[in-house]
Each structure stands twice: as structure tokens, then as C-alpha cells.
Amino acid sequence: MSLILDPTTAEEDRSGVPTPAKPQSRTFRFVRGTPIGVWIAAALLAFLVLAAVAPSVFLRQDPFEIDPANAFESPSGVHLFGTDQNGRDVFSRVVAGTGQSLLLGLAATAIGLLLGGALGITAGVSGKWLDSAICRFVEILFAFPGLLLALIVIAVSGTGVVTAAIAVGVGSAPGYARMLRTQTLQVIAAPYVETALSLGRSKSHILWHTIVPNVARPLFVLVTLGIGQAIVWASSLSFLGLGAQPPAAEWGAMLADGRNYLQVAWWIAAFPGIFITLAALTTTVVGHHLQRRLEAEV
Amino acid sequence: MSTNHARTTRILALLGAAGLAATLSGCGGTAAASEDGTFVFATGKEISCLDPHVNGDMPQASIAANYLDSLVSQDSEGGIQPWLATDWSVSSDGLTYTFTMRDDVWFTDGTKLTAEAVRANLDHMVDPDTQSGTAGGYLKPYVGTEIVDETTAVVTLNRPYAAFLEVLAQPFLGIESPEALKRPQAENCNSPVGTGPFKIVDYVPQTRVSLVRNEDYNSAPPYAKHQGPAHIEKIEWRIVPEDSTRYGLLRAGQVDALDLMPSVHFGEAEADQNVELILQDRPGNPTNLILNSTRAPFDDLAVRKAFLHRAYVEAGIDSVYFGTVTRAGGPLSSTTGFYSPDFENVYDPDPDEAARLLDEAGWTERDGEGYRVKDGQRLTVHFPYTPGSWPTAHQALVTQIQATAKKAGFEVLIENGDYATVSELGNNFAYDLRADYWNTNTADVLRIVFSSEYTESAGFVPNGSGFRNPQLDSILNDALATDDPAEREDLYYQAQQIISDNALQLPLYNQASQVALRSDRYGDLALEPSLSLPYLYDVTVVDLP
Predict the structure, then answer these.
(1) How far separated are the first and last CA of chain A, in Å rounded?
(2) Interface check A50 vs B, CB under 8 A
(3) At B512, is the secondary structure helix, strand, or coil?
(4) Hey, where are the domains in chain A?
(5) In chain B, which residue's Cα lies nearest the Cα of A37?
């Protein structure tokens, strides 16, 4: 792996202060080589993941318990993020919604990758005819903006969390298909595939043991980048009332709930909105960083 | 990597700024009305078809009140007055109505108003192809119209119908040009023609309707404050479903009036010197959730009663409606004739009674999530709902009802869908709860919403509970056959009793016209008396000092 020097380390080295003779450890270099923004993003992401996995750590009130007498309370010690139009604690709802939002993002990305991967790798390894057929098909899908494609899926299969995940997955599939096709073509051209061929390996063996693992390697990065987008799209669907159904504590649905109260109670919409932004931003920042490291490594 | 860091910070700062800008954007429009004399009215609900005969929802009647005249009119005391018909007589058996029409009125397409218009319009409303749930629903007793001469029409009914003239006064039964009605329905929906004070010149679905003044108008009803053409020249009837946007446009001065005033902004509007609120509770069947009694679990009376006892409506009206609507508990709104207050509190919140009723009905077990179970089936209530068709506060109220019902062990599934999907389910009784209301100026609304006559679809199914009770049917028909007020009072009391005893609806609040007007620009916006709809004919421009 390569070490990117930042100005502070360079300064330190030049100062001539005798540092321990042993070379900097791999972990140490990893820590020093990661910008502070990424650390902040990673910490926030860790918080979100914790909130998703074990919401009870943060929950202080039942996110579904209504209390009309205490509706529209502004943020305070009792209600960190205030209460919504039904007197529910906004903080608890945001925390409770983390799991659903992240899971939706993950599931949608997985579906998108699976569909896109199947199309892209098939196109990459197969001959002229099938390749160009798949490419034209993907181009047709590209003619629709991703969210519109998702809306078409919803229109056909109805509303709900599961269909929302599928819809967003389908919506993002063309992008993955194109990326994975290019990746496959690069891998096929690589010397080790040629070596495998000359060693007399069967085509299916090469496909599953050489091509797929090498194509899949950068996927981790794609996933982290994709999740952020998928969360935003899934929230958009819920915002339109097509995803999570009431009283679900889903960020997009909460944002929709709060939009007509912005003038009198900004916190109902603001906090879910901030968390959608945070989730998308942190996964993207971390994903970008991983991508850069990986590129540097290769 | 320091650039990377800086970029992250920049993105965050940008997002923060955008958020602030969205919340802080202020209001404050100029006082002057728009220069070309266009009055901009923002309505909160989508209009399916401009012709109020088709289907028949309130937004259609609202606009119809401004471009259609009716056969007769209603005064503020409920009395029937002449309009396009100058005179009428009713046969002693109550089956024949003879109308004498005005001889000096023309439709805005040049057609002359004659007795033929009566026949063409009433026939159009009862034609099954028109899918007229409201107007056609009111005209079930209609047999036909005979033209005696140019100005005399004789309408025959198959049974006495004491509410006939009252419903004729509603804009839903407004009189359209017979020539225009001959066109295909889709065309007439976009450009219906009447004799009214304004005429429709353009319609962009889901966006706006443009109307201009009828310069030859000579048929203002007795309740109008003047005669001849209207004071304002043009109307832009803009469709703005988003509550906060609609109100924001009024405050910013981009619209001159709005309906469905959002309850959350009432306090602010009341304090605003430039805004006048015009409020009136409407008669009819209150805003409600109707319980489908044709399928499980609400086919069981005990379950229906338990659901009503476990729904907390009062708290929601205080919190999300801020007290801007009045609670209703019985089948009639308090401003309806023959309304009795005795049924307001029959199903007040009573968790113990609800639990007892559910136990008695066999829903004794509870599953892991706390929902009641019987024979392995969860006590689930399906509630298809179109959020866009209802005020923001209504959406919050149904969520609150969902939460309180859960405590009794009901799983209420609010299933959001678009208008078409939800009405399709509504037409086939494929729901357990349906959000409803029925505005009309007579207690005969009970027959439309609860009698077995109205359990079939004509665009929609008026009787959403699917309740069929021969005793109730005959009481409601008897009430139409008598002129004796004491007898009618007694019959309508019995009807309210039967409906209340059967727990067919969860009444929420009285329907109300809630109109806001920029009073620094315009004055004299009144509500027409039959359905309390905004009536722009008398609107005057305020002279700036």
C-alpha cells in the first residue's frame, strides 16, 4: 500500500527529532494517512449503525406513543429533538427510523448490485450479440432517471417497504450493470485470465474462480457509495407516501409529515432531514476514501 | 487530502445554509391587487371534472357555484326561492313538479334557456354513463321530464320527495347548456357551459381553471347583493393541494383567497389585519371514518362499538386542529335540520367497555405485538387512504386514532395509495375503514349515507358501511312523504337512533367552509347558502386610500 504524506508528517520528519528507529507500523500509517473528515464521517456512521442495530441504547421514549396534549413541543432536555404533531418524541423516532433507513439502503443496493451484476458480467463475458443486446437494454433503462424507474416499479407492484427496496434496487441497477461490464472487460484482458486459459481451465471455472472474484473486489466501495444514494431514494419514495406506511418512523415519511409545519415547528422535518443528509454524506465520504485507497493500492 | 476535508466542510456548510433559507424565508406581499383585475383563488383539493354532475365532490361544486345557476335557490333561513325557475307548483300527491322557466336567459355558448334545459340536465344526471354519485344519487326518485311549452317543464317522480327542491338548489345540480351536454363527457368535463356570472375559458388539469366575467349576466339569485355582471373581470382558480404552500401564497400576496384554510395557521391569520377568515359549519353528514359492516371484523356490532369507544378524537381536534373545527358525535352535523344532540356522546372514550365488548366477541387472546387474535386471525382493520385528498391535520388525526385503537388490540393499517387505487377499493367494499363526509342541506343525507338504496356504485358508493336495514329504509322514505314538521322530526330522530345504535361511523368533526381572503384588496366574499361554498359574484375591489 502507498503512504500519502501530509504536510504535518513531512514537517515532523524534517525537524530531525530522533524518532524510534523501528519503521512506522501499518496501522499507524493507516491512522495517520486518513484525513480528519473521514474520521468524523466514520464515527457518525458508527453511531448510525449502532442506532440501527441496537436502538434501545438511545431510545428514551416509545417512538409510537402519541401524546396530543404535548404536541409541537420545541427541543428541550426531555425531548431532545422536540415532539411532532401527535406528541411523539422526534429523537426516538429518528433513532427508531435509522434501522429501517439503513436496511432499506442496504437491501436496495444489494438488489441493484445483483441485477446489475448479472446483466453487466453476462454482457462482459458473452459474445458480440448478447453483449450488444444487454447494452442496448441497459441504455433504454438509462433513458429514465433512476427515481422514475423506481416509481414505475411502485406503480406496478404497489406501495410498501419491500417494494420500495426493490424499486430503488431496480432504479440503480443500470448504473451497476454498466460499471460491472467495464470491470469485467478489464479483468478478461488481464494476463492472469490468459494464464488460466493457457493452463486449460474450463470456461465456467474461469468465470467463477477468476473473473467474478476479481470483478467483485471493488464492489465493497461501490456498495458504500451506493447505500448513500439508495437511502436518499428510499426516503424520497416514503416522502411521496409510496414507501413506509404510517405510523412507521421512516425518515422520508417523517420529513413529509413535518413539511406542512415548518413555519411553526421546524424540528419535525429538520431532524429527519439532517439524518438523511448525514447518512448519505457519511457513507459517501467513507466510500470515497476507501475507493481512493484501493486505487492507490492497485 | 486537506482539500478533501475542505470539500466535506463546504458541502456541510452549503446544506446548512440551504436548510436555513428554507425555514427563514419570510412573507409579506404588496397590498395592490393584480393589475389586470384577475382574482386568484387557491383551492386545496384536486378537481376530477369541472362538470359537477359527473362523480360529484366538493371541489366541483365550489367552482360550479361560480359559473352555473340552479333551477331554484335557497335563502339563509333554508327557504326555497326562485332562480332560473320563476315559479313552480307541486301536485297534491307530491309526485309532479311543474316549473315555469325564465324567458330572458342565455347560456354563455349562445343557447337560450328553455324548458328543454330542465329535461336535458336532469336526464344527464340520472344517466348511468354520467357516473353521477352525488347529483344522480339525489335524483333516484326521478322518472322523467315533460316539455309542455317553451317555458314550462313538468318533472315526475316515482315517490314523494320532500327534499327535492333543497337538492335542486345545490350547485351539484346546476343547469348546464343542453347543447354543451351533447358533447362527449371528457370534453364537457374540461369546458362545461352554464348561465352563471363567470364562464370557463381554460382548464389545465391539476394546475388551474381560468374564468372570465359573463358580460350579459342577468340571472343573479335572490341571495346575491347586486344584479347584472360581476364586479371582478377574471378569476384564476388555482389548484394548490399543499397546505403550507397555499397559505404561504396568500401571505406573499400571490393569491387573493383560499379555501381549506390550514388549521395550523389560523392563529396567525386571525391576527393578520390583511386577512379575513370566512367560516361556516356545513350541514350534512360530518367528516367521519365509516366502518364497512359487510365483512369481518366490522360485520360484528360489538367490534364496531369497541372501535368507537377506543378512538380518541377530542384530543386530536384540540392538538392538530387547534380547535378550528367542532367535534361531531352523531350522524348529522349540528347545522342540519332535524339534528338531535342526543347522539353526540354515545360512544365517548371508554377503554373498559371496549375491552369488555372485544372479550365478549371472542377476541380474547393477544399476540406478541399486543394485537387481539381470534381463531388465529389478528384483529386487523384495513384503511386505504389518500393523504393528498385530506388536510394535513386529518392525516395526523387518523394516525392518532390508529395509535389509540392499538391499545385496545386493533391493528389499523393505514394503506396510502393514490386517488384511483383508493376509490377502486371503495367501490368494491374492499376496506374496513373509509374516510368520508357528505355535505348536503337536508337531513335526507341519512338516506343517502345509510340506506340500502345507496350501496351500489355510481362513480362511488355513498353508503360506505354497506348497512342494509329495511326498518331504517322505510323510516327515511316516510320522512320524505310528509310535510308535517313534527312528524318528520320524529322520523328523523328514530333514524338517527337506529344509525347510532348500529355504530356504523366514527364521526370526527363537522365539515366547515374555511375561506381566507386578502381583505386589503377585496371585500364581500360571501358563502352561497345551500352548501356554504365561496361565491365570488359579489366580490368587490377594495379602494386603496
Answers:
(1) 8
(2) no
(3) strand
(4) 38-47+82-297
(5) B5
* DSSP code of residue B176: B
Show the cell assigned to B283: 350541514
For residue range A232-277, what is the model confidence (pLDDT) as tens digits?
A: 988 888 888 888 888 989 999 999 889 889 888 999 999 999 999 9
pLDDT above 70: percentage of residues in chain B:
93
What DSSP assignment string belongs to chain A? ------HHHHHHHHTT----SSPPPHHHHHHHTS-HHHHHHHHHHHHHHHHHH-GGGT--S-TT---GGGTTPPS-SSSTT-B-TTS-BHHHHHHHHHHHHHHHHHHHHHHHHHHHHHHHHHHHHS-HHHHHHHHHHHHHHHTS-HHHHHHHHHHHH-SSHHHHHHHHHHHHHHHHHHHHHHHHHHHHHSHHHHHHHHTT--HHHHIIIIIHHHHHTTHHHHHHHHHHHHHHHHHHHHHTTSSSPTT---HHHHHHHHGGGTTT-THHHHHHHHHHHHHHHHHHHHHHHHHHHHHHH-
* CA–CA dist A277, A287 (Å, integer): 15
Which region, left, alpha or beta, applies to residue A16 given φ > 0 means left and ψ of -120 to 50 means alpha?
Answer: left
Using alpha carbons, list the distances in angstroms from residue B124 to A37, A183, B54, B129, B188: 70, 66, 9, 9, 12
Q: How big is chain A, counted in residues?
A: 298
Instruction: Express each pLDDT in A161-196 by its tens digit.
Output: 888 899 999 999 998 999 889 988 988 888 888 888
Q: Residue B379 has which C-alpha cell?
A: 384483529
Burial B479-518 (b: 16+ CB within 10 A, else e): bbeeeeeeebebbbbbbbbbbbebbbbbbbbbbbbbbbbb
- CB-based burial label for B48 (10 Å; 0-12, 13-18, 19+): middle
Separation between Cα atoms, residue A220 and residue A227, nearest integer Å? 11
Please indicate whether, in this complex, the C-beta atoms of B4 and A37 are within 8 angstroms of each other: yes
Nearest CA to A94 out of A253, A297, A264, A229 is that of A253
CB-based contact (8 Å) between A39 and chain B?
A: no
Closest residue, chain A, to B313 (C-alpha)? A68
A279: cell is: 447518512
Q: What topology does CATH give the domain A38-47+82-297?
A: MetI-like fold (1.10.3720)
Determine the distance in angstroms separating the CA of A64 from the nearest CA of chain B, rounded to an integer.
7
- Contact assignment for A66 to B1 by CB distance below 8 Å: no
Residues in chain A with CB shorter than 8 Å from the CB of B387 are: 241
Q: How far is C-alpha B196 from the geometric centre of its chain's CA atoms?
A: 21
**CB contact A66 to B (< 8 Å):** yes
Give the closest-approach CA distance of B21 to chain A in angstroms.
12
pLDDT digits (tens, 9 = 90+) for A94-127: 999 998 888 888 899 999 999 999 999 899 888 8
